[in-house]
Amino acid sequence: MESDWLVIGVFVIVYLGMALGRWPGLAIDRTGVAVIGAIVLLVSGAVDGHGAIRFIDFPTIAVLFALMVISAQFAASGFFDWLGQRVARGEADRKRLLFHVVLTGGVLASLLTNDVVVWALTPVLVHGLLRGGVNPRPYVIALACAANAGSAATVIGNPQNLLIGGHGDLGFWQFLAVCGVPAALALAIVFGVIAVSKHGVGAAPASQDPSPNPPAHALKRSALIKATLATLAVIIVFSWTEDRAIWALAIVGVLLLSRKLDTRHMLSMVDWHLLLLFSGLFVVTGAFGGEAGMISRWLGGIVAGGGHEKALLGVISLAGSNTIGNVPLVVFLLAVVPDWSPLSLYSLALFSTLSGNFLIVGSVANIIAVERAGAFGVSIGFADYARIGVPVTLLSLLAAYAWIHVALPMIFPAIGG
After folding, report:
1. In whole angstroms, what is the distance from residue 155 CA to residue 178 CA?
2. Domain residue ranges of the chain, discontinuous segments joined by +
3. Can you tell me the distance from the alpha carbon of 87 to that of 296, in angstroms, rounded to the nearest whole number?
4. Residue 348: pLDDT band with limits 50, 70, 90
């Protein structure tokens, strides 16, 4: 009984830390909160070593690691710098520039994960716009929102989709067929809201000094070809094989066999903090799953229900993504509700991802974009983001809900019925 209360207490404290971003008075971020929570459960004996390993979703960790290494290969090839410079300097027309930012961010995020795309493109984009005397704020927000929206299209677009896809064994092309349309609509909404907003492309030009200058890299074609082939190989793995994790790691093994790109440098670009966050949350949430009978039954009714219940799932996604974060939310929901229909999983993927555009704290990609822009003196406040993020999110969720419960049953009866 004492161990049961300990598990519940650790879960509450860890997810409170997720909501606050840290534990007050301590220099511990969300990753530290999750890892310490898992350690407490192990040390106390509430979870043994075998139980902790069982709770950790190895396939998701392995595939996410593989995608990070592939993204590092793209970065090492100079592709992100080259593309960011072309986007930032290629158009004098502000709305056409906005279109290119939204399209580039959305498409890349669907294949390379949203966090990686925003991290790589933001410095190059901001520097190019400042040199051209263009206010970068709306374009940075556009990049973050587009990366989130575009990542909703595929099972490899973001960490929560990987979790959901692994839980339901969802294939790449079927996931794209179901979620691609609402993701594209969300991208159009991002463009439209920013284009017509008085805080958008018509805003006053910036006057900041464009330094510091981001490091420039010549485009290395051989490295870019390897990264592209590795991405195509991952798509094939998610299309036609069941052992996704093993094959994804095999692809990484081949990718690391390089005469020019140092292994240490490649692995230094892997987001080990995110992998540790996942592992800690898996242990804490897995242990709590056995104690969450009432919550499990209530959420199970929502998941198994029809249109009104799915609307409530959207509300839960919006609230959870902008408090504890969309990744912890999805980890929790999948742990306490074991049975999900494909329609419910697709709904969760869309709602949890698109909800990330609501506030700066709604998605790690948003935080990355704001912090990377801040290094150039470009300040994007909570209200600055919300003026665009709130309408973008609400319209995107409405479009996704209409697609899932009106159009999808007619186009894919087996899924939408």
Report:
1. 11
2. 57-271+294-416
3. 47
4. very high
